[in-house]
Design goal:
Oligomer: single chain
Low-confidence stretches: none
Structural class: mainly alpha
Number of strands: 0
Radius of gyration: 14 Å
Number of helices: 4
Length: 86
């Protein structure tokens, strides 16, 4: 979905989502022009987590430090689950 649609569906403003992308918190969109951004379920997962932490006072710099271990853990869990069904 587009940025506008994503913002409407999540209740997070377009400006806040842009801020998160430019801070590297939604990295799949970081190297794309804004006009090419398309958001999906994975982005919803990360946005929910980012917004929760940010709304509770965690700085964007601290969030960036948290994202790598979270992404790594999510990837490892996904690979483990895929291994069970292959």
């Amino acid at each position: 979905m587009t940025l506008t649609d994503f913002a409407k569906s999540t209740g997070v403003t377009e400006d806040r989502i842009r801020e998160y992308v430019h801070a590297g918190l939604l990295p799949s969109h970081q190297d794309q022009p804004e006009s090419a951004w398309q958001f999906g379920d994975s982005d919803q997962y990360w946005l929910d987590m980012i917004a929760c932490f940010h709304d509770n006072g965690t700085s964007l710099d601290d969030l960036k430090a948290l994202m790598l271990p979270c992404q790594t853990a999510k990837n490892e869990a996904s690979q483990s689950l895929m291994g069970l069904f292959s």
